Amino acid sequence: MIGELRHALGAADLVPLATEATKLGTVQTVVATALVLVGAFFLTVGTVGLLRLPNVYNRMHATTKATTIGASSMFLAGFVVFGPGGAGLTSLVGIVFLFTTAPTGAHLISRAAHRMGVPFFGEEASWPGEDD
Amino acid sequence: MAVELPGFLATVVEAVLVLSATLTLLAGYRVVSGPTTPDRMVALDTIGSNVVAIAVLFALVTGQDFFVTISLVLAIIGFISTIAVAQYVTEGDIIT
Asked: Which of A35, A48, A57, B82 can bridge A105 by disulfide, Cβ–Cβ 3.0-4.6 Å?
């Protein structure tokens, strides 16, 4: 019924049905599975670091790098699954965007923490240019 | 374009979705109880990155590729909100 309607409207040539999905190859499946698992590991490391480290700067150190790698690994898995055109290209743009914006945001947050007077953990570290 | 995942990869992606959602909930603990305001900002940034990863995983598990675009939009919104809160904390005003 729906197929006849789509054929009568001429939509069958324009928009493919969801049942006409493309299958994934074996190599793509293995690589995507590995990338998803690596991304899950790094997301777990980032969140555990966020919960357990003692200071703002230490937590930033844990989350910014590990979570960026985790989300980028998910994006790479999306690139592997969806192919080099369309959504795969969007995935690569997302990786570039994450690697650009995550250090910028962390730098701004650390500057805000410095302006608010949050001290470092321990006695050894100090901001450059300040002698105390 | 829709992509149909094999059964093994679909199972792995669903398990990682559950794991990522749990991690996002755990990061919410730091948002609620972080001692200082930058702690909460860091935790919200982490939640943003986790939600980006969740959107990509949702694109994989449903086979609909426009969720990748949605994850990119979520990343942009998270970056802008982080900058806005940092400017508000340091300068006392967002647009001066």
From this structure: B82
